[in-house]
């Protein structure tokens, strides 16, 4: 028996990167999957988003495990589209037990600047809330809600050197902090229904988002056109352990734990998969 045998999991941002990794990991441990992804570019985001063929590849990989999948192209900013996607998945797969709100974008250096702010907040914060709200009517005792935060939400950046310079970049941190607070309150009040809610905070993760020109420029602002080779040494600054990034599967392992009954009394947690990044920012406290 797999660790999530017989469960059905909704995963957003499932076409590639961490979302695909989560979907395939959960399927390999016995879950059927409702996979959602926008599968098109957002104009303010300076790197290519997933394509329909990426979602098709996720579908193929899940089916290869022997599990069922309902794959839907939908934008997490669109609550009506999400509700339709969840209903379609539940109608076909029978129920819903796990929610993985993974979909997210990085808007640093995005133009127009305030549209980049809006797109990041709407995707990374409102998109998580939309995902949870679309799923809530179907969740019952023992269900697990998991949202992807970021170590960016945990960093002490109270003083901003140049306010207003990069709204899309700052919006990433603001959105991840906001979803963390939302999930804390959700966990508090949904516990009475025996439903759990937790946040996972990855550090740099080896995905298309990290391997992008806007991210390189964020880590190497001293260079006009930095490459991966230029930026990679700077990626180490985020972690206490001597690594530039984690892999998607490292986060997926935590997703699997939180989705499984092994974590049946774990709720309201801000779980870090950060290679010790938090340790660089804060002294010990309970």
TrEMBL record:
It is an enzyme of class 1 (oxidoreductase). Its EC number is 1.1.1.-. This is Putative short-chain type dehydrogenase/reductase. One of its GO terms (molecular function) is oxidoreductase activity, acting on the CH-OH group of donors, NAD or NADP as acceptor. InterPro entries: NAD(P)-bd_dom_sf, SDR_fam, SDR_subfam_1. The keyword Secreted does not apply. The keyword NAD applies. Belongs to the short-chain dehydrogenases/reductases (SDR) family. Keywords: NAD, Oxidoreductase. PANTHER family: 3-OXOACYL-[ACYL-CARRIER-PROTEIN] REDUCTASE, SHORT-CHAIN DEHYDROGENASES/REDUCTASES FAMILY MEMBER. Pfam families: adh_short_C2.
């Amino acid at each position: 028996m797999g660790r999530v045998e017989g469960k059905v999991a909704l995963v957003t941002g499932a076409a590639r990167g961490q979302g695909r990794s989560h979907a395939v990991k959960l399927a390999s441990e016995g879950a059927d999957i409702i996979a959602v992804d926008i599968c098109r570019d957002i104009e303010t985001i300076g790197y290519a988003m997933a394509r329909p063929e990426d979602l098709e590849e996720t579908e193929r990989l899940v089916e290869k495990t022997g599990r069922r999948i309902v794959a839907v192209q939908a934008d997490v900013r669109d609550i009506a589209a999400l509700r339709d996607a969840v209903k379609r998945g539940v109608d076909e797969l029978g129920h819903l037990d796990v929610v993985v709100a993974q979909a997210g974008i990085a808007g640093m250096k995005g133009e127009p600047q305030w549209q980049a702010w809006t797109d990041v907040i709407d995707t990374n914060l409102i998109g998580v809330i939309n995902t949870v709200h679309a799923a809530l009517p179907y969740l019952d005792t023992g269900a697990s809600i998991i949202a992807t935060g970021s170590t960016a939400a945990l960093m002490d950046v109270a003083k901003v050197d140049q306010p207003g310079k990069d709204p899309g970049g700052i919006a990433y941190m603001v959105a991840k902090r906001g979803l963390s607070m939302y999930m804390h309150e959700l966990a508090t009040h949904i516990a009475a229904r025996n439903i759990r809610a937790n946040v996972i905070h990855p550090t740099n993760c080896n995905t298309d988002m990290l391997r992008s020109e806007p991210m390189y420029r964020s880590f190497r602002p001293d260079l006009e056109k930095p490459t991966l080779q230029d930026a990679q040494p700077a990626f180490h600054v985020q972690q206490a352990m001597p690594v530039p990034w984690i892999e998607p599967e490292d986060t997926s392992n935590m997703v699997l734990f939180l989705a499984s009954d092994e974590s049946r009394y774990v709720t309201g947690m801000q779980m870090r998969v950060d290679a010790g990044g938090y340790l660089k920012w804060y002294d010990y406290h309970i």
